[in-house]
């Protein structure tokens, strides 16, 4: 049997060390995260927090005294009330409608924050999910082999429009976002095709509840999440870009006001569940 | 003679009627008496006694007067005019060679002893010097070769090849009175770094014992990389795509293996490297920062030799020898990585089995057809193969083939004509769905280049020529891996352009001064077929602002750019040991590497200048003071420079550069500037040799679209950059060397805030490059142990071998390569700044090298 010798530079030579450095003054900016979807059983929570000094040992602070409403371009208005931990929820369950633009209006710090309008894309169906299994070394005991199960999700991309997707995974009803918190896709490279998506970053064990969501997003949302992803996965590597402000689609309505971080978007969701066997 | 009348010709063939010792006037009078129609003036000629051999003809007698420079003879058809001899100029020219291999020696000084006249061997090892007739002593000197003197009787144009012996070991140079050359003072232009690979300067071992020309260059002033394991050089604040890297005159687009860990230049096959970073002669262009000229060995003309080496990282071998002894030679060399190195990245924990290997093949043939004509054929093929996970493979590499012809039209007119093909290819295969695909990109150059040098006298050299490069760029194609793959076939539009230039230069030396000035007229014609998008307000801000599309047919001229690039350099030799040099260089660049990552990647594509991407232009001003001490044993220099770079390419935040048909919508143009002070001291001979280099500099840019006033330091800016390298013989078989480098940490962007987004802790940044990484410093040492050079019988061994032990990062400093930011694994919600060190430990390595 041919033996190949591998030298891992990272293993032999590289090292990581947590350091303390003097950081610039914090800006304490308003942060919003929220999605409107076509899920009629949801109150579509929106979270408002305030950024904290990077070096602070405290968690980010929730904002609990804001007024939040969501507007549809059709004229509908959805009022929100504060729940907890910075979350605001609609006063009743409602569903977004594909093709309709939505935005959020927030009154905070005696000023108004608005998002840009985001049009909810047409839903693209997740046709089915299959489960693939592989024998791999047990990370806890490399001498043992274990079976890992990975999702394979099949979709048909609509040919007539440009589509952008986000994939979200749940394991036993818990969000599963490690190692990739933002699994994004753009149909530029396979427009109109049957797409068999293999997700070999997301392993399941036998007996797990697997849920896969195919979320149709707008081009603007895709661009925002891509930039956010690069900020948390490639910074500091030779393949990374220079860090920069991740600008979302939110701003105070007065010109000279501080930046608002985060994003408000409208998405449509197709979801499937399976028990891993 | 041909103009003489037939009757006179008959008279010239008659025998003399005198011989033995006779005065000049008597002899001429005697010729008249036998009817030879001669004219001369006793007032002008000097009467002197001459010795005439019995039995020679009148013609032979007149030739003797001429050859002995007693009188000049002119046949005008009616009479023969005898006039006083006027001394003439003659040219001596030839090649300086390595006596062992027959290879030409570049950049050697040719000094006419007893005069201030001299020249240097050109980039091909040729010299030519025109002097008044007479007896001379020429001295040939080069830092790595024994000094050679030769007597010359210059009464006609002469060809003289000189051979000299390489200096053998450092210990041979212990003699205190060794006088070395002062080429650094004589050379017309400032800011040149030379690395002779076979010399002690060129044999500095680097990481894992590899000898590498690019890493070696980093020890010189003004040349830096962004960090360990980072691709590309930043020369005097320029971008990595602003260096013209030439291998035997052919362009190399990606000079890196292993993502920048080492260069593609196999030290076994390379002869020397020259880096021009201040004044760039008019014959070079197309890049705005520097010229890195790498020349392969030519091949041994005298005997077949083999050499090679093996270390932890790679093994290499070379065979060279004569095809026809003294006339033609061959060289073939190969290098192969020995281990599949793992380059798993700390941030890519999802990617396992990320492994890479490489190989190089260098070949060269050279054929000396005549004294005036030599042909060369050189080639290179290199490849990196990177396995990423189980389902993806990337291959990339350079290829080049160059045919070159050196021809002497006359002793004073030298020409070099070359035609080359150069390619850089990238290919990726991914079998994993979604989108199993095969992707390709490529840039290819097809070029013809001519340079001529005319040396009318030792004080003047005129050079002129033209070059044209047909660039063909295939920015990207993507096709399904097989019939089951879900991906579509996509092919970005190819680009093609003709980059042409004509240049003229004049090097002139007067008493104490020398000048080099010239002009390069360069241009790019972007050719069809092609598509040009029109944008609202003429600004390519986004795809959505496209207002129109213009289609161009094959060979239509899509865009035309012409630039005048004046160059001037002045050398004022203040005294025998000091010179002051100043230069101005303007350069234009029509090709741009599209890369928004901290360090360029093999996948990055090149793009021609266009309506929306104007050529990058640079004006550079350099002033330098050069001083040699102790008979040129010490070489000191101090240079200041300032350069402004126009139309420097930058990128929008989150720029989408992959398979983007409208890539101009992702780009921004910045104005950049760089300035600095470079100090350099080199001890060239003696038991202990080495140098100290220090650079104080700044490189910064501003993007008018963002901010009209504020310049921001560039990612590669290092305020202080110090390096020193020394070698010393410890015994007749053991020598040691050490390098120490120190530099200010590169700029880094620190976050002000942290915020949560969907449970992820995100760092927020306000201003770019608002802090710096900790200072970088590192000490490397190496020991060289030579095999026995003498047999037991006392006879010198023909074979050499030696071992090198290298210790990289002797005191195991954990230099920061970067900072990254993460959520504490043990304290959720708390953010951490993490220092990442690529080589955070001591790294010993051993290599074995041989030659037989």
Features:
heterodimer; A: 277 residues; eleven-stranded mixed sheet; five-stranded antiparallel sheet; 2 helices; B: 852 residues; Phage tail protein beta-alpha-beta fold; Maltoporin, Chain A; 3 domains; five-stranded mixed sheet; globular; disordered N terminus
Structural class by sheet pairing and helices of chain A: mainly beta
- Rg on CA atoms of chain B, Å: 32 Å
Question: If helices are DSSP runs of H or I spanning 4 or more residues, what is the number of helices of chain B?
Answer: 5
Number of domains of chain B: 3
Most residues in contact, chain pair and counts: A-B, 82 and 85 residues
* Portion of residues within helices of chain B: under 10%
Amount of beta strand of chain A? over 45%
Largest sheet of chain B: 22 strands, antiparallel, barrel
Please write the string of helix (H) and strand (E) elements of chain A: EHEEEEEEEEEEEEEEEEEEHEEE
Tell the overall outline of chain A. globular
What's the overall geometry of chain B? globular
Considering DSSP H and I runs of 4 or more, what fraction of the residues of chain A is helical? under 10%
Give the low-confidence spans of chain B. Answer: 1-7, 169-180, 344-351
Query: Regarding quaternary structure, how should these chains be classified?
Result: heterodimer
Distance between the termini of chain A: 34 Å
The number of distinct β-strands of chain A equals 22
The rounded Rg of chain A comes to 22 Å
The chain-level mean pLDDT of chain A equals 88
